[in-house]
Amino acid sequence: MARANVIQKYRDKGLKLTPQRIAILDFLDGNTDHPSAEEIFSGIKQTNPTISFATVYNTIQALRERGELVEVTIDPERKHYDPNPEPHHHLICSKCGKIGDVFEDFTDALKLPQELLGKFSVTSNHVNFYGACINCSKGN
Amino acid sequence: MARANVIQKYRDKGLKLTPQRIAILDFLDGNTDHPSAEEIFSGIKQTNPTISFATVYNTIQALRERGELVEVTIDPERKHYDPNPEPHHHLICSKCGKIGDVFEDFTDALKLPQELLGKFSVTSNHVNFYGACINCSKGN
DNA sequence: CCGAAGTTTGGAATGATTTTTAATTTAAAA
DNA sequence: TTTTAAATTAAAAATCATTCCAAACTTCGG
Asked: Looking at the domain covering B3-82, what would its CATH class be?
């Protein structure tokens, strides 16, 4: 999406757009790295040296409330964020920790066993695939 | 497993068995609540008032190193622990947060899409089912 | 029992995240 | 534009889970 359109889109959602927020939106737009708050902060800091963590966290929350950013609970040490709100699954490299995306709907295959059918009503599912990314499979 | 056997089992694994550790093992044995460290601490505290968090965390680590306890990364706010090391999946009630178990192997169904096959080598998978537990589906 | 090695403890330290504060900036109406 | 209420900012302090620490204490093999 063109930058001007991205800005318009968020303005329409009631987000006051400050230079810092625009920098964060730019950073997140199309980003598939599943950055942590700290990584967003560092990424912005280069072009926006005075930005504070509070701004990053505020913006993360504002985007989450608007469904534009999803919290990813995969790394036990910190939260990661995914600017793609479309349901999808994740690949986690057990060696380097990199998180990749899997766009495929496994819902039909993921049926609960008989004995649980009456005990839990499923509304969504999420699969984590653990293993090695191509980088770590090779030499290093 | 009988208590004496549980104790023998851990002694064989090179764990010195202190009263605190025995209390933690008793608390975890057969527990399907996926407790957090704080919940383990509180559960032990009643019978073992001087226990410290450090001991709880130390024991968690010792058990994890021996494959007897699995860290469950589902709740973004804290780590939870599962004394069942057998691979399985989880139900997460979006309302009350309760975590349940699903013993079923979905591996055959969880094939990566063609374009990812050469890019990531999967060694295991884990499915989270989100929805409502029976308790939360009804009145409350 | 003795002693070495491993444990426990309470409190301090750490690290991620959230809240607070006072000052600044914004959107939008006049 | 100018105004103004509401939102945003940076910096610092607060919070919460978790880890570290040094000293005192246990366990268990011999």
From this structure: mainly alpha
